[in-house]
Amino acid sequence: MAEAFKSLRQDIRQQFLSAHPEPLVPSFSLAAVSDSATTSRMLLEAWKLLTAYDPRTDSQLLLFDAMVPGGNYLGTLHADHLAVALNYSGSADSAIRSAADHNRFPRAALLEAAVRSAISTLQYPSE
Predict the structure, then answer these.
(1) Rounded distance, CA 104 to CA 106, Å?
(2) How crowded is the C-beta side of 48, counted as CA atoms within 13 Å?
(3) d(Cα 81, Cα 15) in Å, to the nearest integer?
């Protein structure tokens, strides 16, 4: 898990993008942006720190850092980073559910819409 968080660091991402300036396969970006009212308590301090750089953050990444250069932009989601990615609201641990107090997100519908959009883009690429 530590390596996953390390990969979110801006310097690590920039290093990767410098080494790989063009996506090898069609790539898609879905960014998340939250505000203080839509950020879970467990992420709120990180969100506050990142808003010093840009108010468009999901508590883990700035909006710009969530975009794949040269990729297809699918949209911006109004939720914090973990609400989009993980279902903490279903956790058996009440402390986790309490800390992830803004974790409800329609992940299944998002996945379906993203896949449908990607398929459409791949079938009918723009010129």
Answers:
(1) 7
(2) 7
(3) 22
Buried b (16+ CB within 10 A) or exposed e, 73-93: ebebbebbbbbbeeebeeeee
Report domain extents, the chain.
2-11+25-123
Q: Is 87 in a helix, a strand, or coil?
A: coil
Quote helix, strand, coil % in the chain, to nearest 5. Answer: 45, 15, 40
Residue whose structure tokens are 């090898």? 24
Q: How far apart are CA 29 and CA 27, in angstroms?
A: 7
- Predicted confidence at residue 9, as pLDDT, reads 83
Judge whether 31 and 63 are in contact, CB under 8 Å.
Answer: yes
Strands (E), 1-121: 28-33, 72-78
Residues 116 and 95: beta-carbon distance below 8 Å: no
Residue 3 has pLDDT above 90, yes or no: no
Cα distances (angstroms) measured from residue 59 to each of 72, 84, 104: 23, 12, 16
